[in-house]
């Protein structure tokens, strides 16, 4: 599935939720299901600076594609990380770099979701993009 | 211009009227009535403060102290009148002991630099406590690094009470200053500052009190406490942001040199030499935040009109009610249970991260703060990274506490499902 197809799938999933509580519950469920990060990758260097909540980021590059290992101490942010990983992990770096993550707006989280307002997740999104840029030249 | 008049002293504590004085409180967040429980971070502003700021900008704006014209003279009078209001509010001996600053951080940095330059040398010691806000740690660390001095720390017990016996052991001939917080912003503990000062003074050591979280909750009398310095911020006492106070005993302020130079603080400048103006002006370099200062004066008038004892008694009711309610929630761990405390509830809910709890409370219209609250060493004591902090003010209500309690129950259910 390419990035756009996954985004459409997420948008469709969120159409099933009637209110913010259901959306948050779903994020909690996704967060609980996020595979634990390899403890070796939970280093000081891998902490995303400036995030209000401690979040670790690690990526690997295999056969022209980027794979992510991301974790956070917040279950809600972990839920959001699960959506980002679903959308972007295993994709080509140039596609990740150039993609418009429009699903964030379309699932109705931007306005009503404090982690987004607090810029924490934009820092994560920016890190994913700058990281992909580095792989583009490899 | 005549002074801005405030309402007459209220004979009873009318919570409906008080809430109407604060326009921000009437709004809805996500369609739910705002419950503002983040007063430790900043307090909301009563209409009289909002109005005076608008009025000063609209009708009276002019720089203070150096003008011969009408507007400048008016503004200077109001600015200096605000200083006298602060003097009266703190019961300082003379107005020269009241320095306008940007806030507590600025006040403490001023003392850390100026006192440090005047009195601190290699191997001297400064005492702070384990429950300090970073703004009462970092300036002293910077000063210690500059002067080769050492920082000593008074520990606290698990309830959040300072261990005064340990404090007494720390004081010795090398101690040059004690800097402690009056009320802990993370735990709510009211420290026995009068006793802390008395112990220090027996050893001829001056004391700075960080009053950021104390000033808005009851009467502060700096002569009674006998502290050498007292700092507070305007925005935490229902006044504007960007204005604060450094109270200092005249003898120290006279001896200390300013740490910022510039306009307004000089007597005479030549390229060879500068002499400084008298107190309090020598510590107020540049154009001061005169509108903020006047706004602060109006905020103090407003609180006086309500009655500081009324505020203290009402907030005590909120604290007792809220404590009973929250302790009934199994899975909630309350941090800061000292006998003498203000209405702050710092807690963790089951295994949920404070941030996640805060996100949900926000969605329910409740504003709290989550994280370490700029007291990382304090949380080190408990071996956790931080808490959810609900900090209440005299415009909060018992009904809001009920709603808060129900919201926490819902959150518990959501995370544990």
Q: Mind sketching the topology for me?
A:
The complex is a heterodimer of chains A (138) and B (417).
Chain A: H1 3-15, H2 20-33, E1 55-62, E2 65-72, H3 75-88, H4 93-98, H5 103-106, H6 114-117, H7 120-136
Antiparallel strand pairs in A: 1-2
Helix pairs in contact in A: 1-3, 2-3
Chain B: H1 15-20, E1 28-29, E2 32-33, E3 35-36, H2 47-60, H3 70-90, E4 98-101, H4 104-119, E5 125-129, H5 138-147, E6 150-154, H6 164-170, E7 175-181, H7 193-202, E8 207-210, H8 222-225, E9 229-233, E10 244-248, H9 250-255, E11 266-269, E12 274-276, H10 290-306, H11 308-327, E13 332-335, E14 344-349, H12 354-363, E15 366-367, E16 369-371, H13 376-382, E17 387-391, H14 398-416
Parallel strand pairs in B: 3-15, 5-6, 5-7, 7-8, 8-9
Antiparallel strand pairs in B: 1-2, 4-10, 9-10, 11-12, 13-14, 14-17, 16-17
Helix pairs in contact in B: 2-10, 3-10, 4-5, 11-14
| Number of discrete helical segments of chain B | 14
CATH topology of chain A: Sufe protein. Chain: A
Roughly how many Å apart are the termini of chain A? 23 Å
Low-confidence stretches of chain B: 1-10
Radius of gyration of chain A: 14 Å
Please state the average pLDDT score of chain A: 89
Q: Work out the count of structural domains of chain B.
A: 2
Overall CATH architecture of the largest domain in chain B: 3-Layer(aba) Sandwich
Rg calculated over all Cα atoms of chain B: 22 Å
**Number of helices, counting only DSSP H or I runs of 4 residues or more of chain A:** 7
**Residue share in β-strands of chain A:** 5-15%
Order of strands across the biggest sheet of chain A?
1-2
Shape of chain A: globular
């Amino acid at each position: 599935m390419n990035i756009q197809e996954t985004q459409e799938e997420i948008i469709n999933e969120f159409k099933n939720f009637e209110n913010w509580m259901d959306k948050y519950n779903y994020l909690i469920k996704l967060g609980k299901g996020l595979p634990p990060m390899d403890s070796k990758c939970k280093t000081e260097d891998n902490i995303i600076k400036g995030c209000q909540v401690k979040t670790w980021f690690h990526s690997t590059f295999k056969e022209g594609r980027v794979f992510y290992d991301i974790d956070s101490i917040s279950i809600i942010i972990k839920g959001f990380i699960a959506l980002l990983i679903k959308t972007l992990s295993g994709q080509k770096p140039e596609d990740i770099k150039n993609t418009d993550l429009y699903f964030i707006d379309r699932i109705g989280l931007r306005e009503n979701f404090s982690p987004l307002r607090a810029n924490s997740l934009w820092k994560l999104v920016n890190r994913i993009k700058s990281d992909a840029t580095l792989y583009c030249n490899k | 211009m005549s002074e801005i008049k405030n309402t007459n002293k209220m004979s009873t504590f009318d919570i409906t009227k008080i809430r109407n004085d604060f326009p921000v409180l009437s709004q809805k967040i996500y369609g739910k009535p705002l419950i503002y429980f983040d007063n430790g971070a900043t307090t909301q502003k009563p209409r009289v403060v909002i109005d005076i700021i608008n009025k000063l900008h609209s009708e009276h704006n002019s720089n203070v102290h150096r003008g011969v014209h009408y507007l400048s003279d008016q503004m200077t009078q109001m600015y200096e009148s605000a200083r006298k209001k602060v003097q009266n509010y703190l019961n300082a001996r003379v107005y020269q002991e009241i320095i306008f600053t940007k806030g507590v951080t600025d006040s403490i940095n001023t003392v850390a630099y100026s006192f440090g330059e005047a009195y601190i040398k290699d191997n001297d010691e400064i005492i702070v406590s384990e429950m300090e806000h970073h703004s009462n740690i970092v300036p002293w660390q910077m000063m210690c690094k500059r002067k080769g001095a050492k920082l000593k720390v008074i520990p606290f017990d698990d309830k959040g009470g300072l261990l005064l016996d340990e404090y007494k052991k720390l004081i010795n001939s090398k101690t040059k200053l004690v800097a402690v917080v009056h009320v802990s912003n993370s735990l709510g503990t009211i420290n026995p500052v009068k006793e802390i000062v008395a112990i220090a003074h027996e050893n001829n050591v001056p004391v700075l009190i960080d009053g950021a979280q104390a000033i808005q909750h009851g009467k502060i009398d700096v002569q009674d406490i006998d502290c050498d310095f007292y700092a507070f911020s305007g925005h935490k006492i229902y006044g504007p942001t960007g204005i604060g106070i450094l109270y200092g005993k005249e003898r120290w302020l006279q001896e200390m040199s300013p740490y910022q130079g510039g306009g307004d603080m000089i007597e005479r400048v030549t390229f060879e030499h500068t002499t400084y103006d008298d107190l309090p002006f020598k510590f107020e370099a540049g154009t001061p935040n005169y509108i903020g200062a006047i706004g602060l004066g109006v905020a103090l008038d407003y609180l006086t009109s309500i009655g500081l004892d009324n505020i203290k008694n009402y907030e005590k009711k909120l604290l007792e009610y809220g404590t009973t309610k929250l302790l009934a929630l199994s899975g909630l761990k309350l941090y800061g249970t000292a006998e003498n405390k203000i209405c702050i509830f710092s807690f963790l809910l089951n295994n949920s991260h404070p941030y996640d709890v805060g996100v949900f409370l926000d969605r329910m219209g409740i504003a709290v703060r989550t994280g370490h609250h700029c007291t990382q060493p304090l949380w080190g004591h408990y071996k956790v990274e931080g808490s959810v902090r609900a900090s209440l003010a005299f415009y909060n209500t018992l009904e809001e506490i009920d709603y808060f309690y129900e919201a926490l129950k819902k959150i518990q259910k959501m995370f544990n499902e």
